[in-house]
Amino acid sequence: MTTGKINVSVENIFPLIKKFLYSDHEIFLRELVSNATDATLKLKHLASIGESKSEYGNPIIEVKIDKEGKKLHIIDQGLGMSAEEVEKYINQIAFSGAEEFLEKYKDSAKDSGVIGHFGLGFYSAFMVASKVEIITKSHTGAPAAHWTCDGSPEFTLVPSDKTTRGTEIILHIAEDSLEFLEESKIKGLLTKYNKFMPIPIKFGTKQEALPKPEDAPEDYKTEYKEVDNIINNPNPAWTKQPSELTDEDYKSFYRELYPMQFDEPLFNIHLNVDYPFNLTGILYFPKLSADLQMQKDKIQLYQNQVFVTDNVEGIVPEFLTMLKGVIDSPDIPLNVSRSYLQADGNVKKISNYITRKVADKLKSLFTENREDFEKKWNDIKIVLEYGMLSEPKFYEKAGSFVLYPTVDETYFTLEELKEKVKDTQTDKNGKTVILYASNKEAQHSYIAAAKDKGYEVLLLDSPIVSHLIQKLEGDNENLTFARVDGDAIDKLIEKEETQISKLSDEEKETLKASIETIVPKEKYSVQLEAMDSNAAPFMITQPEFMRRMKEMSQSGGGGMFGMGNFPEMYNLIVNSNSEFATSLLNTKDETVKANLVKQALDLAKLSQGLLKGEELTAFVKRSFETIK
């Protein structure tokens, strides 16, 4: 029997481990199962290069609860250890078995999938255990060993009668951690962290139906047999080559990742790169709502099939954190508890690679089947628009596949759109004016007026559209965007020819002054415009600059300081060529005139969705009175 002190620089490291090293106690199981997987993969590698005489076979890892004995067992059929190796790897905490192994076999072990982090990972057991035992037998045939430690620096190491290769770790669960003896808790942790580990993990047994015999009688009752309950999928889709997978395989894996998600993904992007870093994974574009925040933290980060986190900020470009899926890379640096990303040059390279890969996939989808891409546009546009604003590299590529839909549900790229409208929608100053609506129903009358002129009107309704068009205007000379209800249509796209006013300048001044005494000056700027006599007599618009700045301020970023709280200010455009304007000018009774202006103003507000509450009630009452 050997006794001794664990070689650590701090007199008692275990309270430090428990309190500081690991932020989350539940990850002890991830670490121990990772170590068991590590030991099994090492054996596989050594057997494959002829350095182990042990038969690899079909090893599994077993996790077992002994509720009565308050013990949790993690058993593997991997490499095992001799007493000398236990002394080295367990007692001399500074060593890492995996690191030494990789150094020794670095060329041939490149693809062996060794997880690493053995040293400190093992000690996470003391977060939940008052005593830990290791019973282990090496693949070399060396005598088995039994190590015991109660959480102090003291340990015992004695021979063991274990006859089978591998390691069994027994945790004597501490009184403050008895939740880890509950089957549902352990099953939940194994599913969370070890769902895709490369070695089968057994957790209990289950009943499996036997095939029905061909000659079974009519009253045959299904028979069952007890089989190992394997809780993981050792060969998940992302570990395979894209050529091995069908569309159904990708969808099936999506359902495996998100069993509570009922919508099918729109499409997927398979990541597979081994230089200058190693990265595999599958990203899915789900159907997205306009609520960006609700979508985040759906991508899972793995290291060699071990779950690390679902906070992938920094690794995945921010605009793609709204996607779903898996990324697996051994080259992403993490701290000792694998919980936090560390700043590193590789991370930026990975982020850039993912951006490029997504852009290339979108371009190919657009090119190969534009019709299908257009059908999916409304479900993916928010991600792409956000990407154009936040990632310069994505913006550079986006012009070839980002679409701009019209109110008639036709789709153009920006270059196609500019070509389509250049003859009709270029104003007298040589600027091409792109008209857009944000709400097809609310802005219907304005859209109709624009279409009567033969103009195209886009439907741009995402919450960040003001930021996007600001950027597009900055990058495209002589191009400007104007919301269709931002002014009278003839003012939005001013041509050389001008409408002649039926009213003289003096009459216009009289009419304007008269209206200004009736409408609130702090809210409306009255403007008389000579328009088509059939156009609406009163029209309410909001200046493009003012409205856009408010929207940008409200949606974050851009805009002017405090614009989000700036009081609403509108233009009241009076069509001086309308019969109503002439009638109003000729009305001498001020009370009648005031009622006519209020009614016309309310109608204009109604067409903009601005008539609400008490004002709407008064308008309805007044309207009914006129038809008595």
TrEMBL record:
Matching Gene3D superfamilies: 3.30.230.80, 3.40.50.11260, Heat shock protein 90, C-terminal domain, Histidine kinase-like ATPase, C-terminal domain
Superkingdom of this protein's organism: Bacteria
Pfam families per UniProt: HATPase_c_3, HSP90
Keyword Transcription carried by entry: no
Record field: transmembrane: none
Keywords, ordered alphabetically: ATP-binding, Chaperone, Nucleotide-binding
SUPFAM superfamilies: ATPase domain of HSP90 chaperone/DNA topoisomerase II/histidine kinase, Ribosomal protein S5 domain 2-like
Family of the protein in this entry: Belongs to the heat shock protein 90 family.
Protein name per its UniProtKB record: Molecular chaperone HtpG
Native organism: Flavobacterium ponti
